Amino acid sequence: MQFCTMLKKLQQKWGVNSGKMFLIMITFALGGSSCARLADLLLLLFFDEKNIFWWTAYFFLIVVLWPICVILISILLGQYSFFKSYIFRIWGKMIGKSVKINQKTTKIAIFASGKGSNANNIISYFKNISSVKIALILTDNSEAGVIDVAKNNHIPFHILNKEDRIDYSNCIEKLRNNHIDFIVLAGYLKKIPESLIRAFPEKIINIHPALLPKYGGKGMYGSNVHESVIAKKETESGITIHFVDEQYDHGEIIFQQNCDITASDTAETLAEKIHQLEYAHFPRVIYEVVQKQNQR
Ligand code: GAR
User: Fold this and answer.
1) Distance 106 CA to ligand 1 centre (A)
2) Model confidence pLDDT, tens digit, residues 78-130
3) Which atom of ligand 1 sits closest to the CA of residue 188?
4) Are β-strands 106-111 and 132-139 bridged in parallel, bridged antiparallel, or unpaired?
5) Mutation probe of ligand 1 site: the residue of 117, 185, 215 with most atoms within 8 A of C-beta
6) Going from the N-terminus, what domains does the chain have, and what CATH number goes with each?
7) 205: which strand partners?
8) Quick check: is 226 catalytic?
9) Digit-coded pLDDT (tens) for 158-194
10) End-to-end C-alpha distance for the chain, whole angstroms
11) Cβ atoms within 10 A of the Cβ of 21, count?
12) Among 15, 45, 250, 288, which has the minimal tally of Cβ within 10 Å of its Cβ?
């Protein structure tokens, strides 16, 4: 059980899906066993018995052979890019320096209008992932809790005033000046204008607290969504993560996850269930989309 929890934590830290995690584990297992076998075979050429010299030579051989075996197997299993950065990171730790490998950092801007619990969760998730940086937070609400989230995490933030929201060119300039590659809407309640979509084509994703296309559109946000779902006596709801296009809650769907609604559920309890789904899936899906786009 503890082993499974540890694996889950690692999977989250590395930002990989279950299939990739499985292949990574197989690579570790095959890399470890083949390197031990190879070291054994090589030492047979020089030693008749396992004495202190054998063990010393064995130790050094393992240190040298392990990265080679793991890299070779990772190529066979299609996991080379993960293991290349993994081995560089370990090497950096061993020599007490962070070793720079040619890895591009994707800079993300989060747009949010409310308390920002999703923003906070996304920031925590990416803290240990060096290839992604939450570089800017934007809000249309000067009272929004997400401003405290930005301050607590030392992330620059910008409040979009009325003029900014009539003409988004200021906002686009801010995003460009901060070298933003990707935009995440985490509870941003204003419609995204065409100019911003054109400036960041296929680079803006949104989370909606229902199973689109149901319960989407203008005015459908936060508790409004949950109240409508409960009023219609639905037996399930869920989350939808989608690309943003010119229409409210309309772009291509990337991911959906449902949850049951029981007879005792209220809009508040449903909101809590939905938030838990959002925390569990949104950062991982963001990471998968970013990785996929970077591989193009
Ligand atoms: C989230 O549940 C998100 O799905 C929803 O706003 C909430 C923000 O919560 N977004 C929409 O309704 C967009 N149509 P948070 O501020 O605690 O992250």
Assistant:
1) 23
2) 999 889 888 888 888 788 766 555 567 899 999 999 999 999 999 999 998 88
3) 13
4) parallel
5) 117
6) 2-95 (no CATH), 106-294 (3.40.50.170)
7) 184, 243
8) no
9) 999 989 888 999 999 999 999 999 999 999 999 999 9
10) 38
11) 16
12) 45
